[in-house]
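Hey everyone, long-time lurker, first post.

I ran two proteins through the pipeline my lab uses and got sequence/structure pairs for each. Pasting them in order. The first:
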Amino acid sequence: MTILNNLRRSLLRRMRNAPIEALDPRIPHSVVIPVATYSPWRADRDFQDVYASIKGNTLVDIYRCHDLWSLIGQLDKIPGDILEVGVWKGGTGCLMAARASRLTTSKKVFLCDTFSGVVKTSDKDTLYAGGEHADSTRHEVEALAARLRLDNIGILTGVFPEQTGAEIEARKFSFCHIDVDAYLSAKDVFDWILPRLALHGMVVFDDYGFFGCEGVTHLVNELSGAPDFHVFHNLNGHAVMLKIA
C-alpha cells in the first residue's frame, strides 16, 4: 500500500501544472490539480440528496455544483431573485432553486435558455461555432422541477436578454449564474444584470478558465479591473464576481 501511495503521489506531481497547448496564446492552460483535499460536499446530506436527482441533467461537475449550492446559501440577507442564463437540461437551475427554497426569505429562480443551443458566437470564441448543446427541452427542465417539487421556478424560452429580458426587467437580483459558453452572449447577460444586481450580490461565470471557452475567460479578465466588483478565480472553473459598490 505504501508503494502504491508513493506511485500515486509521484504521478500527481508529474501531472500537476503540466502545460496544455493553448487555443489562444493569451489564455494559457495546464493540468490543474489542487493540493487541498477538504471535500465539504461529502458531508452535506441535503446537497447530496438534491445532487443525486439533478446530476443527470447537468454537465457541471460536483465541485461547481456544490459551489453554487454554498453561494446561494449565503444570500438570505441579500435582496433579490436568482437568474440563470444557459440552463441546458435544468440541473444547476433546479439545484439552486432547491437551495433557495431552504432560505428564510422568498426568492424566485428564473431559468433562461434558447433550448436550441449556443448563440452569439464570434471571433473571440475558439471552439464554439453556435448551436452546440441543443439536445435539451423546456419539458426536461419542467419535469426535473416537478420531481423535486419546486414551485419557485420561472422558465423563459428565447435569446436572453433580447427576447425574454423584458419579462423580468423590473425585478432585482441577488445572484446570476452565466453558463452560455460564448463571449458576446456572456457580455450581454452581464450588461443586463449589472444595474439590477443588489449590493453584495454575486455573478458566477461557469465557463471561466475552461479549454474551449476562451471567449468567456477574456470577458472576465476584461471585467476584473472594474471598481464595482471583487473577482475571485476558483480553480474549479468558476469566476465569482462580488458587487461591492
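...and the second, right after it:
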Amino acid sequence: MRIRHVLLSHSPLKRFEFNNLVIDFDKMTVEREGKLDERLAHKDFLVLRLLIERSPAVVSRDEIMDKVWGEINYSTNRTVDNAILRLRQSLGEEKSGWILSVRGVGYQWKCDEVSYGK
C-alpha cells in the first residue's frame, strides 16, 4: 500500500492544461484564466490525478477506493461519489462534463483539448 502511494504521488505528470484551467500536480492547485482558484483536498487531488492518468479508460469506484484510500479503510462508495462531486464543483465543470459517470462502473475523464507538462 505504501509503495502504491509513493508511485501515485510521485508521478512524472506535473502540469495538466485544458481550456482555461491549469492543474499543477506538484502544488496541488487549480488556476482559472491565470488566477489561483483554489487548493483541492489531498484525496480529491489524488482522485483527479488517477482519472487523468488513466484517461480515456473508465476507473471503477473500487479501484479509486483502493488506490486513493487504501485497501483497509472505513469508507464507502459514497466517499468516492462525494470526492467526484467536490471535484466537479472545483473545476466548474457543470457545463463541460469532464468527469463522466459510467453507470454501475465508475468514472471517466473526458477532455478533448489537453496539454501535458512534465
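Reply from user beta_strand_b:
Welcome! Quick read of the second one: Residues 113-118 have pLDDT under 50 and may be disordered. The longest helix spans residues 77-91.
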